């Protein structure tokens, strides 16, 4: 796994005189504010004959910049109420593609007139992450053509310290892994191969990796996951895996972050088959597990202190066949809760529920635990929140302002999220209609046309896992946030062709790792 490493450069003069680099990318709202007379003169002369300067990316020859390549990138307005650091993220994505096309492999990024507002405090690092997002190429393509299809080797960051670069590199490493795991086609990243990627990712690290492959064990301990996997069992290469990752820091532990990630390597919808072209892109339904694994990678690479991370990934294929599960079945969970299946395309909550139950039991003995499920769960989240992650929290998480912290931090790292309340209607919606069952998994309509379609699944997960017994009124409240990245998980909402975004990796890392 290779991504361009960020290198610190103390000032612009050092960048101009460093022979290692071969292009200079200047990102600004106003290029006249560059604190270098020669560059101001060069951009002024260019703007006199090229109206594109200040309006779109321009690549020009400049004798005194690295590699004689000068790339001018406008951010657009930065001062309106609704402007944010994504102006830099998006501008750099455009710039790095032009740098790559021009033959540059070691560009320098300089932010000429960054606002002093705290909204742009991390703009330089975010610019680097934007470049990495643009440069990533799919794992299958790298394996076919070789790593040379990602030619950029280093990115100089003017004004960054080594500590800032180490922090940025850790986030980038996690995002890179998350994109690989999410964005790879369903055979190359079938459950056994997903697990193998995770094992290789943490070789010689301080992350303990356990892979459960025995279906009898999965069926016994995680009956809802086994139900989802049932039709995939006859195909050996599609058989499910549970991947458990544990990062234990050196020294004292102050907080424990506990995750369950949804890893549906392919979701056909099962018996409630996705039709009308809606199945394409469903190899990305493993984005939640991908982001969780990526977050663990970032924490491990940074050797974070004080924070322990426990992550369970449910890696499974929702296939259709003679043994697939169907609506109306009643499944008894690890907690002894009887779940009536409402729709087999609402499989993610089933795949995660028993692992969440186990995580909940472990949390009782951990230090300051916070629990998360991360999933590309509902079309409703994408419809309601657009390109933002949806955070649905229980009472203890709300009391501790967990989602608020993640959301506010995400705004500073181009990884935005919206907060959703969990309400009584969500719990009422999944109440049983007979004494034969205890809870409904879902209704039988698409989530996107169901009122509160991304909120009520959190209520189901709480009941199925037993977390509903650990609210503010309990003897042992456990903060729990359900993170739905269905709207934020791929660029442009294009599930078939859009690049995975590694949604939530940056915001979680920046929230908890200082």
How is the secondary structure organized here?
Layout: E1 5-9, H1 12-16, E2 23-28, H2 37-49, E3 58-61, E4 69-74, H3 86-102, E5 107-111, H4 123-135, H5 139-145, E6 154-158, H6 162-183, H7 191-201, E7 207-212, H8 215-221, H9 223-229, E8 241-247, E9 255-267, H10 287-302, E10 307-318, E11 330-332, E12 338-340, H11 348-363, E13 369-375, H12 379-385, E14 389-393, H13 395-399, H14 402-412, E15 417-421, H15 424-429, E16 439-440, H16 456-465, E17 480-484, H17 505-512
Parallel strand pairs: 1-6, 2-4, 2-5, 5-6, 9-10, 9-13, 12-16, 13-17, 14-15
Antiparallel strand pairs: 3-4, 7-8, 8-10, 11-12, 14-17
Strand order of the largest sheet: 7-8-10-9-13-17-14-15
Could you give the count of β-strands?
Answer: 17
The average pLDDT score comes to 97
Q: According to CATH, what is the class of the largest domain?
A: Alpha Beta
Q: Mind telling me the C-alpha Rg?
A: 24 Å
Q: Give the oligomer, counting copies of the same chain as homo and different chains as hetero.
A: single chain
Q: What is the CATH architecture term of the largest domain? A: 3-Layer(aba) Sandwich
- State which percent range the strand residues make up: 15-25%
Structural class: alpha/beta
Principal-axes geometry comes out as elongated
CATH H level, superfamily name of the largest domain: Zn peptidases
CATH topology of the largest domain: Aminopeptidase
């Amino acid at each position: 796994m290779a991504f361009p490493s960020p290198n610190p450069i103390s000032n612009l003069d050092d960048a101009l005189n460093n022979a290692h680099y071969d292009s200079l990318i200047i990102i600004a709202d106003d290029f006249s504010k560059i604190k270098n007379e020669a560059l101001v003169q060069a951009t002024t002369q260019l703007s006199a004959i090229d109206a594109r300067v200040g309006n779109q990316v321009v690549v020009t020859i400049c004798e005194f910049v690295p590699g004689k390549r000068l790339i001018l990138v406008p951010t657009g307005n930065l001062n309106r109420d609704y402007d944010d650091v994504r102006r830099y993220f998006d501008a750099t994505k455009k710039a790095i593609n032009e740098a790559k096309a021009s033959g540059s492999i070691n560009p320098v990024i300089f932010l000429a007139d960054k606002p002093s507002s705290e909204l742009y405090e991390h703009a330089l690092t975010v610019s680097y992450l934007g470049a990495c997002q643009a440069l990533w190429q799919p794992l299958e393509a790298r394996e076919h053509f070789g790593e040379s299809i990602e030619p950029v080797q280093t990115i100089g960051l003017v004004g960054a310290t080594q500590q800032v670069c180490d922090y940025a590199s850790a986030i980038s490493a996690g995002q890179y892994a998350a994109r690989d795991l999410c964005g790879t086609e369903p055979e190359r990243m079938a459950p056994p191969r997903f697990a193998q990627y995770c094992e290789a990712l943490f070789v010689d690290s301080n992350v303990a990796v356990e892979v459960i492959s025995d279906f009898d064990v999965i069926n016994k301990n995680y009956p809802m996951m086994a139900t989802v996997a049932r039709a995939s069992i006859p195909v050996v290469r599609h058989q499910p895996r549970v991947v458990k990752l544990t990062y234990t820091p050196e020294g004292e532990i102050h907080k424990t972050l506990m995750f369950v990630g949804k890893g549906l390597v392919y979701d056909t919808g099962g018996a409630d088959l996705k039709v009308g072209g809606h199945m394409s892109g469903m190899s990305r339904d493993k984005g939640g597990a991908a982001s969780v694994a990526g977050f663990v990678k970032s924490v491990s690479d940074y050797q974070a202190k004080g924070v322990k991370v426990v992550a369970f990934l449910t890696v499974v294929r929702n296939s259709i066949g003679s043994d697939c599960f169907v609506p109306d079945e009643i499944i008894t969970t690890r907690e002894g809760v009887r779940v009536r299946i409402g729709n087999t395309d609402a499989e993610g909550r089933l795949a995660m529920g028993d692992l969440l139950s186990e995580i909940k039991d472990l949390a009782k003995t951990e230090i300051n635990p916070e629990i998360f499920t991360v999933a590309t769960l509902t079309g409703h989240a994408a419809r309601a929140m657009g390109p933002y992650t949806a955070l649905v929290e229980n009472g203890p998480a709300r009391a501790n302002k967990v989602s608020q912290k993640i959301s506010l931090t995400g705004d500073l790292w181009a990884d935005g999220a919206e907060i959703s309340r969990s309400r009584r209607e969500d719990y009422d919606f999944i109440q049983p209609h007979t004494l034969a069952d205890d809870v409904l998994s879902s209704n039988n309509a698409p989530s996107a046309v169901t009122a509160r379609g991304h909120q009520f699944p959190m209520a189901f997960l709480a009941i199925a896992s037993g977390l509903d017994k650990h609210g503010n009124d309990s003897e042992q409240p456990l903060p729990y946030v359900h993170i739905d990245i269905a709207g934020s998980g791929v660029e442009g909402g294009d599930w078939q062709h859009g690049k995975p975004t590694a949604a939530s990796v940056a915001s979680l890392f920046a929230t908890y790792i200082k």
